């Protein structure tokens, strides 16, 4: 049975305006979230004056709480039934709270001791966990409800990832320069004004996404209970594989983002060079644009494995050419292109695991499955991506604002360069087992459309 748009609107082709608007969601998310994932550890240690071990522990504990909140967000989405859909209304409801919460996270009030730690932990959980997790959950959960057409899903996800990378590029490239410019020597003031600016833009983008995106795939008006959401995971092996691989992958991603500042400041002698590293994340657009074509030639699993291999090669090459900054940047760029391939694919593939769960169990739980598969993995992986290297630094004797010992410099290099290579190898070993389930997808989607047609005829 073919996925025919005329026979079933759920198989619709998506207008370009809608794909662009869908891209706005992750552009908005990354304007603020990448500010946190890239600079919060640096902000805590070098601006808010929290010891590196304490800062790493705050981020880890907060990320665990945030990851657990993703499970609840998924259930909330599956219980949401409005005239706007299940996921779409949250772009409206969370846009302004997201901006305010992130601003509070990058505020440095005159607190001391336990009060300072509690403030940092509470605001980070509020912004990165409760609010951003809700946005991240709905960005991913809405994809399987836009259309059942596999090609359109890949296309929409590619637009999304381009938006994501543009958001990352803007915040990664301009955060530190704007902090210096707007703060005029006062980093606290600089971060406050910079995040305020990003927050206004992010809120506007989310509101535009709410206006233009539509959910088409029929969803039962009966709320999916948490128990039935769990049933959608029973036997859902492709979902198990993606959740495991993506959570581990985000350890590397968060590590690369957060430690570029340390590598630039302490190993290269100029913290502003972090903007060069992070700004080059925009090269991932090459990957996002190429993905639909690469998937047609190979498949989704192979595309992700290719990305991991290129990413690992770029990271390893940085170590080989470490004495030449230009060659380091070229190697980093290769790694960015590869990691962007690898990062993009799970978001699209999660939509297929929603279909698999419904096909296997009879329960469609896009909110729960994609929340755990995206927001949960990102939060958990990001927490460990800051915690693990922070412990490595602490063990090596790192002290902020000082010239580092050879041991501390080596620890920074290992965390920034080699730790991601090790993680990419682990992720690749997991994803090899996904090939089997990707081959089943066309039949699964045909069966689901046939079931929907039978239900409609019976009614």
Automatic annotation (TrEMBL):
Organism domain of life: Bacteria
Pfam families: MFS_2
Domain Major facilitator superfamily (MFS) profile: 1-440
PROSITE patterns reported in the protein's UniProt record: MFS
Keywords noted in UniProt: Membrane, Sugar transport, Transmembrane, Transmembrane helix, Transport
Residues that span the membrane, as ranges: 20-44, 56-78, 90-111, 117-143, 164-184, 190-210, 230-252, 272-295, 302-321, 327-351, 363-388, 408-435
Gene Ontology terms: cellular component: plasma membrane
Topology with respect to the bilayer: Multi-pass membrane protein
InterPro entries named in the record: MFS_2, MFS_dom, MFS_trans_sf, Na/Gal_symport
MF terms in GO: symporter activity
UniProt-annotated location(s): Cell membrane
GO biological process terms, semicolon-separated: carbohydrate transport; sodium ion transport
Protein name as annotated: MFS transporter
Organism: Lentilactobacillus parafarraginis
């Amino acid at each position: 049975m073919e996925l025919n748009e005329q026979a079933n609107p759920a198989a619709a082709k998506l207008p370009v305006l809608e794909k662009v608007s869908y891209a706005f969601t992750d552009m908005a998310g990354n304007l603020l979230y990448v500010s946190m994932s890239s600079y919060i550890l640096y902000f805590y240690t070098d601006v808010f004056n929290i010891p590196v071990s304490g800062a790493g522990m705050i981020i880890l504990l907060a990320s665990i709480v945030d990851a657990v909140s993703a499970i609840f967000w998924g259930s909330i989405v599956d219980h949401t039934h409005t005239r706007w859909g299940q996921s779409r209304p949250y772009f409206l409801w969370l846009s302004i709270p997201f901006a305010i919460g992130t601003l509070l996270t990058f505020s440095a009030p005159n607190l001391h001791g336990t009060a300072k730690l509690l403030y940092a932990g509470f605001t980070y959980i509020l912004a990165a966990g409760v609010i951003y997790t809700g946005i991240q959950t709905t960005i991913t959960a809405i994809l399987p409800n836009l259309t059942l057409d596999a090609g359109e899903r890949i296309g929409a996800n590619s637009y999304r990832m381009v938006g994501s990378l543009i958001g990352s590029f803007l915040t990664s490239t301009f955060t530190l320069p704007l902090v210096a410019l707007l703060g005029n020597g006062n980093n606290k003031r600089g971060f406050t004004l910079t995040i305020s600016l990003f927050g206004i833009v992010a809120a506007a983008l989310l509101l535009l996404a709410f206006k233009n995106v539509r959910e088409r795939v029929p969803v039962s008006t009966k709320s999916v209970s948490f128990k039935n959401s769990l049933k959608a995971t029973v036997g859902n092996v492709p979902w198990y594989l993606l959740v495991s691989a993506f959570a581990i992958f985000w350890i590397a991603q968060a590590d690369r983002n957060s430690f570029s500042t340390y590598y630039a400041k302490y190993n290269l002698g100029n913290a502003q060079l972090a903007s060069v590293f992070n700004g080059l994340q925009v090269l991932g657009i090459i990957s996002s644009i190429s993905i639909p074509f690469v998937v047609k030639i190979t498949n989704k699993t192979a595309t992700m494995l290719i990305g991991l291999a290129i990413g690992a090669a770029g990271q390893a090459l940085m170590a080989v050419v470490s004495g030449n900054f230009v060659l380091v940047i070229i190697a980093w760029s290769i790694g960015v292109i590869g990691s962007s391939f690898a990062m993009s694919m799970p978001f699209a593939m999660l939509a297929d695991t929603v279909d698999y769960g419904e096909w296997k169990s009879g329960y469609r739980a896009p909110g729960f499955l994609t929340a755990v598969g995206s927001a949960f993995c990102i939060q958990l992986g990001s927490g460990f991506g800051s915690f693990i290297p922070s412990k490595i630094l602490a063990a090596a004797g790192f002290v902020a604002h000082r010239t580092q010992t050879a041991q501390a410099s080596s620890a920074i290099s290992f965390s920034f360069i080699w730790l991601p290579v090790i993680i990419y190898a682990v992720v690749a070993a997991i994803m090899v087992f996904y090939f089997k389930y990707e081959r089943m997808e066309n039949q699964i989607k045909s069966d689901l459309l046939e079931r929907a047609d039978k239900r409609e005829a019976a009614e």
